[in-house]
Design a protein that fits this description.
The protein has two domains: 10-181, no CATH class; 201-317, Sandwich (Immunoglobulin-like), CATH 2.60.40.10. It contains five helices and 13 strands. It has helices spanning 10-22, 83-101, 104-108, 113-119, 173-181, and strands at residues 53-55, 61-62, 129-138, 141-149, 155-165, 168-171, 201-209, 221-228, 239-244, 253-256, 266-271, 287-295, 310-317. A six-stranded antiparallel β-sheet has the order 2-1-3-4-5-6, with helices on both faces. It has a four-stranded antiparallel β-sheet with strand order 10-9-12-13, with no helix packed on it. A three-stranded antiparallel β-sheet has the order 7-8-11, with no helix packed on it.
Length: 320
């Protein structure tokens, strides 16, 4: 996980995240908000279709049911489904095939010129499954919610934004990132924000992917669920820092959530503790580790309680 330090220029953040997204290292989060089920049940509900595209052993893409099951779409005055929505539904089906097979051409076909250039630049992405949820219009854009399940099993929710280019609806990566970072919420938390209320962040749980994590494996990913149990929306996202305490060569991973967090909303942060790079060599041993998470590390968001900002949980890594 990149360390998004405060003071960085927003366009740079967008560029970095966009490149990482395409290479499979990071996806949009509604922004890098994964939609794994937290250890504790939350009040926020994410609507997605159970329909998925997945790889078979022969690497062919199959669908047991239609890939898109629109939960709520725009309709015309006659009550029929909006023509533009129908088009985007078909586009998302092919884009899903592109994500699960690595065939960038299927994504490029329905992307803007700027987004096509990025996908044509040799960068690849891979996904174990791709499912589509709600598709709807918002002003002059069409928003297509979806869930990308990465190869290690981590599910992440996204909102792909389609805009008109040369008279046709096209998927645009930059607009999708703007949508995610602007804090747009497609489903409410069920709690109304009280501007005279308070903000209070807690960690509700930790999950490790895959379910049988192998020590020193770069695919191991830890997902941390953070909830605002207060009554007021945070004015910005919360900072987090995580580290494996018994792993001497593990360096802390810091991250800043970009979007405000609604009262009652849970967001998810993930990082790869064994992600190799040129700065240090991974050489851990199998066994149990204590994962420590600190939230609102800079205390730059005023909370009603700072005493519940540290969370620890034991996780176990295996040889095989």
């Amino acid at each position: 996980m990149k360390n998004l330090q405060r003071g960085f220029v927003i366009p740079l953040i967008i560029t970095v995240i966009a490149l990482l997204l395409i290479s499979g290292g990071i996806y949009f989060y509604t922004n890098k908000k994964t939609i794994n089920t937290p250890v504790q049940e939350t009040s926020k509900t994410t609507e997605t279709s159970a329909t998925q595209i997945s790889k078979t052993e022969s690497e062919k893409v199959v669908t047991d049911t239609p890939i898109i099951k629109t939960l709520s779409t725009s309709t015309s005055s006659t009550g029929s489904e909006d023509t533009d929505i129908s088009l985007v539904k078909d586009f998302m089906k092919e884009i899903g095939v592109g994500y699960t097979t690595g065939e960038n051409s299927k994504i490029i076909k329905h992307a803007t010129d700027a987004t096509s250039a990025l996908f044509s630049g040799g960068l690849t992405q891979s996904a174990k499954a791709f499912s589509v949820g709600k598709i709807y219009k918002s002003g002059d854009k069409i928003i297509a919610d979806n869930t990308i399940t990465k190869t290690n099993g981590v599910p992440e929710s996204n909102s792909f934004v389609f805009i008109k280019e040369k008279g046709e609806w096209k998927f645009d990566l930059a607009e999708s990132m703007k949508w995610a970072m602007s804090g747009n919420k497609n489903t409410g938390s069920g709690v109304t924000s009280n501007q005279n209320g308070n903000i209070d962040f807690i960690v509700t749980g930790i999950k490790v992917y895959p379910t049988h994590p192998i020590v020193n494996n770069e695919d191991v990913e830890i997902v941390v669920s953070v909830k605002n149990i207060g009554t007021k929306t945070s004015e910005k996202g919360v900072s987090l820092e995580g580290s494996l305490l018994e792993f001497k060569k593990s360096i802390p991973y810091s991250w800043q959530e970009l979007a405000p967090i609604l009262p009652g909303e849970t967001v998810n942060w993930s990082y790869k503790p064994y992600n190799k790079n040129e700065f240090f060599k991974i050489s851990d041993t199998a066994g149990k580790r204590t994962l420590k998470i600190d939230i609102n590390t800079f205390k730059d968001i005023k909370e009603s309680n700072y005493d519940n900002n540290t969370f620890t949980q034991s996780v176990e890594f295996f040889v095989k």
